[in-house]
Amino acid sequence: MVRRPTHNIECPTAIFWSPRGAIAEANVRAARARLLPSRHRQARTHLNPGDPCGIERHGFTLIELTAVIVLMGIMLLMVLPDLESSSRSYVLDSAASEVMAALRFTQARAMSTSVSHGCEFSTADNTLRCFEVTGSPPYPTADHPIKKTPYTVDFDTAPGLGGVAITGVSFTDATVTFDSFGAPDAGGTVTVSLSNCSKTISVLAITGLLSVSDS
User: Fold this and answer.
1) Is this prediction's pTM over 0.70?
2) Is residue 22 part of a domain?
3) CA–CA dist 19, 27 (Å, integer)
4) d(Cα 64, Cα 7) in Å, to the nearest integer?
5) pLDDT tens-place string over residues 148-188
């Protein structure tokens, strides 16, 4: 039996190719190609030959700053009248609320104590005063429920009410009195004013219902 000689045949190493890997490698190479010129351009853009530090410095010219200041001044002049009107409206609302609070206090106090209470107004002194109907006039001033001091309001000196004036009172003797049921002796109005604006506080007869309206 003849034995044939055997030969070791070396197989070349197989190369495995993946489309996904090829695409990823191509993307990486493209990104590097784009990034390198971009960095060079950015460095050249920020370099300032006149600056010893090689950094470009940005700022505003005098003309630009002047234009901005002028525009801001024009806008302020346009908004200023509205701000003044809002301020007057706020102060007048506060004055009307002060009158309403005094009337509500006297009405509630009369009902809780079963003793008549009233509120008197003075256009000459620009004040209001809450009182308790006991004894003979002048009746004693009632105490403020929170401050525990005589309940009086001077619109000339009260904080936040500067410039407000009591310009009209339709009650007899500028006084309204509430009985133990909360009913007023008569209906009427009180008007407070500031500049050309006014608010009228009304007390409805019999029921004593209070309301505020522009006048």
Assistant:
1) no
2) no
3) 12
4) 90
5) 999 999 999 999 898 999 999 999 999 999 999 999 999 99
